[in-house]
Design a protein that fits this description.
heterotrimer; A mainly alpha (261); B mainly alpha (287); C alpha+beta (350); A: mainly alpha; C: five-stranded antiparallel beta sheet; 8 helices; 24% helix
Chain lengths: 261, 287, 350
């Protein structure tokens, strides 16, 4: 086969994979605008499911709760994660390697295990299920992502800038505020968006930790799916996936292109 | 001078690091320890239950073949999904890393990994719409093909595999892409200058160098798939009983937490075993 | 301005001893170069004086005050870094004004002093630029202005010119020397470039393996190295192997050469390449040493020429202006001669 044939074959393969990845999502989005409740064709455009969504207090509450939780998680995880990244960047100390390895369990252990373990522990200490438990759990899942993203950004930061600021008489807080933070800001923004996505899209851990009747949006969708599909779920799912893809697009922009000055 | 500067510095490091790691301790490491503790109890130690230490939950795992069978079923599912993902994903990563150049590559790469960062539950749900009997897939096929076909993949193992591949495929593409991108094109040119054919270059140069990345992706797929429960529930229906769904049941339906904890812990042991085996590879892939 | 004293400084990193009982004195207003190969401890010494590192033992005094436990931000030193370390998110003026703002001198005063500093480094109208819009030499001037605008007690320079190309570096050397004289600040300067050290400084200190092996005015150190390492590190030296016999040195093959009459006990003898003269015939005269050799190679380098001659298995380097170097055939017999008094007499062979 010629080089051109290989190339064409490769591009077709890539195209097929992209089709596989996006087709179901696009189908779902299309169906959310279909008038038929049972996804009947021919397709008739309608926004009735979105209108119904606006009346569904349960879904709206869950959505509001999800956003609120995600915002809390973003604020906490971004702050704590950035602090830890800066400390690890600035200083060499024994056990640093271990601390970096400890970031893996929250990412690598299946959420089923983490989630059930949290459920057991939070019940054991009397916290039980509910929104606070969900936030605590989500923050723990998000911190490693923030640390990884901010650390990647810090790798492009020249540590002698901090030394220069110190030599000019700046105390630790001034150095951080005037020199370090301005440079790593894109990394922190990307880390925050990741944290938001981890929390907002999180299903498994929320599923075990949220209280019935007080659940997050993904948990509510899961319960609804198991009862049977409805176009309303389609509509809210379409909104969610659009939102989370947008957030990640912005995050990708910040973590990759944001730093070039 | 109350505190020596070096001591002051140490305090600063501690102050910056400890909040994050305390949080991880409280929300990850203590819960995992608590789970180990629970797994050796006869009943939940809340209220006025009568509980004692026992290994009966682990004994249940050994004595009731259902659990081992389901764990094996989950492992097989994991292997299946991993294999399909690697076979589909590696060529894709290769095209991205070595065939396409410039801005198009960045855009396409972003397109490939974007779904990975969107809501997995919703993506599984979208497959349910596509795959169900009389659903979009069947109707599209019947519209194209001259003969009637009856495609009802919903509630089958195939549906579960498709959904999971869809969920985790970007992982292996990402890690393979990073591995492939790190291969200097001059190595390929060098092999060509020595007269090597395309297949030889693939087998002797590209694959060995990209292997750590591929294996890292495989591990990152295999581990969560073995512990999956939401995907089999939605797409598997009656055939969708796996090790993960049994654990889920212990916590949300049967309320046998100690058994659930023991089953979770067995799964954790399997996962940690795999991660430990793969850690040299993962470390290699990182650099 | 202030003089700097370090006494008995010792600093270890794990099992590596970076500074080993270093005692040194940097006089007020002087320009002092710390010179040594990499790993010799020169940068550690500079960073300890700056306050980035704290010594395991020993003391640092600036202007007579002990500062060993004072961190860098409270030491009132000016520092210039190898890569300049200009804050990329600030303009040139903000970079220079950073130290003033930290000291809360007020906006008007800051503007005035930044302006004056820009004038001093001849960058008058570049205050609004960003560092990435500047050339290497301009960045270097900004870094210098930033380091001195707060009137620090000491100016510390960590290989500040090594990132510049050769022509620019020589310009900057002159510039740096001018500014240092103008403000009269005590300056300590780390470099591995011996020529730069000799050009700029009025005193140099040679470090090796964490110890100061010699310090003094560059000319003294060059002309009277105290050990073989210094002789070879600061400039080139052709070692004369043999044993001393009163006023003469008996080379390994028995040739006797005259030694200068100097007080002291010497363990080794050497001669600088530029002290050697190459000729076809044996030169004669009082106090002239001459040894036969074989010319192996002649290397042309613009104004200067280098010849490698071999004698009894040892090679000798001869350096002279190209026009002064006789054009002799390679692999032919030649004579190497030098004035008896230009022989380096080295007390320690270590």
């Amino acid at each position: 086969m010629s080089a051109l044939a290989y190339r064409t074959l490769g591009l077709i393969w890539l195209g097929a994979v992209l089709f596989f990845l996006y087709a179901p999502i696009l189908v779902m989005a299309a169906m959310s605008f279909n008038a038929s409740e049972f996804y009947q064709l021919p397709f008739r455009f309608s926004t009735q499911w979105y209108a119904r969504l606006a009346d569904n207090q349960e879904i709206l509450d869950a959505a509001a709760r999800s956003v609120l939780i995600a915002l809390c998680v973003t604020a906490i995880a971004t702050t704590l994660g950035s602090m830890a990244s800066i400390a690890m960047f600035r200083h060499e100390f024994r056990g640093k390697r271990l601390l970096q390895v400890l970031l893996f369990p929250p990412i690598a252990i299946p959420w089923l295990i983490t989630g059930t373990a949290m459920l057991i522990f939070f019940f054991g200490v009397g916290l039980g299920r509910g929104t606070p438990a969900v936030i605590i759990g989500h923050v723990a899942l998000a911190i490693p992502y923030v640390i990884v993203v901010v650390t990647a950004r810090l790798a492009t930061f020249d540590p002698t800038l901090e030394e220069a600021a110190r030599a000019l008489g700046a105390d630790a807080w001034t150095v951080t505020r005037r020199v370090t933070l301005p440079w790593i800001a894109p990394g922190i923004v990307a880390g925050a968006l990741f944290a938001f996505a981890v929390s907002f899209d999180q299903f498994v851990v929320s599923y075990f930790l949220s209280e019935p009747g007080d659940s997050t949006l993904p948990v509510l969708i899961y319960t609804a799916i198991r009862k049977g599909f409805t176009p309303e779920i389609n509509a809210i799912s379409t909104i969610i996936i659009t939102l989370s893809m947008t957030v990640m697009l912005i995050a990708a922009r910040y973590s990759k292109f944001g730093g070039d000055r | 001078m109350a505190i020596h500067p070096a001591g002051q510095r140490r305090l600063g490091v501690l102050g910056l690091l400890s909040p994050a790691y305390l949080w991880l301790t409280v929300a990850i490491f203590l819960p995992l320890s608590a789970m180990l503790y629970f797994s050796v109890l006869s009943d939940v130690p809340f209220g006025d239950t009568d509980w004692h230490y026992s290994l009966e939950n682990y004994r249940a795992f050994w004595e009731n073949p259902v659990y081992a069978t389901l764990l094996w079923k989950s492992v097989k599912l994991g292997l299946m999904v991993t294999l399909v993902s690697v076979l589909v994903g590696f060529p894709c990563a290769y095209v991205l890393a070595k065939v396409i150049r410039g801005r198009a590559r960045e855009t396409l790469f972003l397109l490939v990994i974007l779904p990975f960062w969107s809501n997995s539950l919703v993506r599984i749900f979208s497959w349910a719409i596509v795959l169900r009997g009389n659903g979009v897939l069947e109707r599209s096929l019947n519209a194209i093909l001259p003969f009637e076909v009856d495609v009802n993949l919903m509630f089958s193992t195939a549906a579960v595999v498709i959904g999971l591949v869809h969920s985790y495929l970007p992982y292996v593409i990402l890690t393979s892409y990073l591995g492939l991108q790190a291969i200097d094109d001059s190595l390929i040119d060098a092999a060509r200058s020595m007269g090597a054919g395309k297949l030889t270059i693939l087998a002797r140069v590209i694959l060995p160098l990209a292997l750590p990345g591929v294996l890292a992706g495989a591990v990152l797929i295999f581990v969560p798939v073995v512990g999956s429960f939401m995907e089999p529930r939605i797409l598997g229906g009656r055939v969708g009983t796996y090790y993960g769904t049994v654990i889920e049941d212990q916590f949300v339906a049967v309320f046998n937490w100690p058994l659930g904890a023991a089953l979770s812990f067995v799964l954790l042991a399997v996962v940690l075993g795999i991660l430990a085996l793969a850690s040299p590879i993962l470390r290699k892939a990182q650099t | 301005m202030a003089h700097v004293d370090v006494t008995n400084l010792t600093k270890t990193f794990g099992t590596f001893t970076a500074l080993d009982d270093v005692t040194m004195d940097f006089p007020d207003g002087g320009f002092f170069a710390l010179l040594g190969p990499s790993g010799s401890g020169k940068t550690t010494l500079l960073r300890t004086i700056a306050g980035f590192l704290f010594p395991d033992r020993g003391a640092v005094c600036i202007g007579g005050q002990p500062v060993s436990a004072v961190p860098v931000e409270k030491r009132d030193v000016g520092m210039m870094f190898q890569n300049y370390a200009l804050f990329p998110n600030m303009t040139v003026a903000d970079n220079i004004g950073f130290g003033l703002r930290v000291r809360r001198v007020g906006a008007a005063e800051e503007r005035r002093r930044v302006g004056a500093a820009l004038e001093l480094v001849q960058l008058g109208d570049l205050g609004n630029r960003r560092p990435h819009q500047l050339s290497g030499g301009q960045r270097q001037r900004v870094a210098l202005a930033r380091a001195i605008v707060t009137n620090p007690r000491v100016l510390l320079l960590d290989e500040p010119l090594s990132a510049l190309d050769k022509a620019l570096r020589i310009d900057m050397q002159i510039e740096l020397k001018r500014i240092q004289r103008e403000i009269g600040i005590t300056t300590i300067f780390v470099t591995h470039d011996q020529e730069e050290a000799m050009t700029l400084s009025d005193r140099i200190g040679i470090l090796r393996a964490g110890r100061v092996v010699q310090s003094g005015p560059p000319r003294d150190v060059y002309n009277a190295p105290q050990d073989l390492f210094t002789a070879g590190f600061l400039g080139d030296a052709n070692l004369l192997e043999g044993h001393a016999d009163g006023t003469h040195l008996v080379l390994t093959d028995g040739t006797r050469i005259e030694l200068p009459v100097r007080p002291g006990v010497f363990e080794a003898f050497a001669v600088r390449p530029e002290s050697l003269t190459l000729s076809a015939d044996r030169p004669r005269g009082a106090g002239i040493n001459a040894i036969p050799a074989v010319l192996r190679q002649r290397i042309f380098a613009g104004a200067m020429a280098t010849c490698i001659a071999e004698r009894a298995g040892q090679s000798f380097k001869v350096v002279a202006r190209d026009r002064d170097m006789p054009d002799l055939p390679e692999n032919g017999e030649v004579w190497l001669s030098w004035d008896r008094d230009s022989t380096l007499t080295i007390p320690h062979a270590s």
